[in-house]
Design goal:
Elements lengths: L2 E3 L5 H7 L5 E3 L11 E4 L23 H16 L4 E4 L1 H9 L3 E3 L13 E7 L4 H6 L3 E6 L4 E4 L4 E7 L4 E6 L4 E4 L9 H20 L1
Parallel strand pairs: 1-2, 1-3, 3-4, 4-11
Antiparallel strand pairs: 5-8, 6-7, 6-9, 9-10, 10-11
């Protein structure tokens, strides 16, 4: 079993969170026959043109090459029905890939003095995320200034911050889970459960194939 990490930036944080699972960082020579799941990582802002908007926030940090590459990865992963975990940007990217949109800027969720901010989220019952963490409220870390505006095709909200910001999305038809926070930077049981559930889903792919 091998998990594909979508981008090399800070990939060691995600490798550590996957706790010994074999990983590979995507490149154009990736052998998809050996991939059991894909983890889309945090990072730069997604170009508004990807969701049909003009850029009105001049402070956006956009990497169009990364957008194009990760959209290609998403298309391949969905075509193979591979389990997907999206974290922060990764959560937003899958939402946009499936036709959703983003708020280009929100207040109150970005880093403070270079450190993740902390806030509570409500996990919605009868969602896959609730089944994983088995908790209605979590304290999570936050390091983003964009957020999901409208959900993509086939997606449902699984978590919200107290101000209403969408913090989690998932699909009832596809093995995808996305969270807006950074569980790879939280050393606690609930964060471990998110990665463990993803690894289990990936391992089932090996059994099925």
């Amino acid at each position: 079993m091998r998990v594909l990490i979508s981008w090399s930036e800070k990939s060691e944080n995600y490798e550590r969170a996957l706790r010994g699972t074999e990983t590979a960082v995507y490149d154009k020579n990736t052998d998809w026959q050996k991939i059991s799941g894909v983890l889309f990582t945090g990072g730069a802002d997604i170009a508004p043109s990807r969701y049909g908007e003009k850029m009105y926030d001049k402070d956006l940090e956009i990497d169009e090459n990364r957008d194009a590459t990760e959209f290609e990865i998403a298309e391949k992963a969905f075509s193979l029905h591979l389990p997907i975990l999206g974290i922060c940007r990764g959560c937003q990217l899958i939402n946009v890939f499936l036709g959703g949109s983003l708020f280009q800027h929100i207040e109150g969720h970005s880093k403070v003095n270079g450190k993740d901010s902390l806030h509570k989220v409500e996990i919605l019952e009868k969602t896959r995320l609730f089944g994983i963490v088995n908790e209605k409220n979590l304290e999570v870390n936050s390091a983003h200034h964009q957020a999901i505006k409208s959900t993509g095709k086939g997606l449902r909200v699984s978590a919200r911050a107290m101000d209403g910001t969408i913090e989690g999305i998932e699909s009832s038809e596809y093995p995808f889970l996305g969270v807006q926070w950074h569980p790879e930077r939280l050393d606690n049981e609930k964060s471990t459960k998110i990665f463990s559930a993803f690894v289990i889903a990936c391992s089932k792919m090996d059994i099925d194939h």
